[in-house]
Amino acid sequence: MVENPIVIKARKAFIIGSKCFPFMLCLLIALSYLETIFALATNDFIIYDGYLIPNVPISWFIGEYFEYQIPFVLALIVIVHATNTCIWNKLCCYYSFIALIEKSFFDFELDPEYIYIICLANIIISAFLVYKGTKIITRM
Q: Which of these, 118, 121, 124, 115, lies nearest to 43 by C-alpha position?
């Protein structure tokens, strides 16, 4: 039985996407934390609903088109396990899940020093995972 060439190309695109998307998600997470650090360093804040929050226009622009939530990350975890991706890919998905939980956990006002520590730790983790992903994807 000969398979349809469109089905074969779609299957390849799905597998490549499932290998690349978790690393891109980590890149977006790192970008969000970098923007938060920049806003803190430049004292660029806005008042929203009575709270003082960092002004992060790039993250808000991305959020207009894409917002990742727990059901999305869980579906991504299932997909990366189903397509037999590498350990770094799976770690990106788990890290994305932990980052979501972390954001909901720190849903109160913090001192700037704590925000710097949280952001730097997340940037280091995200950057490392993106670095590993870039090395893997460039070898494909």
A: 115
Q: Could you tell me if 93 and 73 are in contact, meaning their C-beta atoms sit under 8 angstroms apart? A: yes
Q: Which DSSP symbol is given to 43?
A: T
Question: Phi and psi (nearest 5°) for 55?
Answer: -85, 110
Determine contact, residues 133/116, Cβ cutoff 8 Å: no
All residue ranges of the chain with pLDDT < 70 are 1-2, 140
Q: Which residue has the tokens 């207009």?
A: 64
Q: Which secondary structure element, helix H or strand E, spans residue 45, and what is its range?
A: strand 45-48
Question: How far, rounded to the nearest angstrom, does the alpha carbon of residue 37 sit from its chain's CA centroid?
Answer: 16
Task: Name the residue with tokens 């870039």.
Answer: 134
Residue 100 CA to residue 58 CA, distance in Å, equals 18
Q: Which helix (H) or strand (E) holds 66?
A: none
Q: What pLDDT is attached to residue 86? A: 86
If DSSP codes are grouped into helix, strand and coil, which group holds residue 52? strand
The identity of residue 81, as a single letter, is H
d(CA 97, CA 41): 27
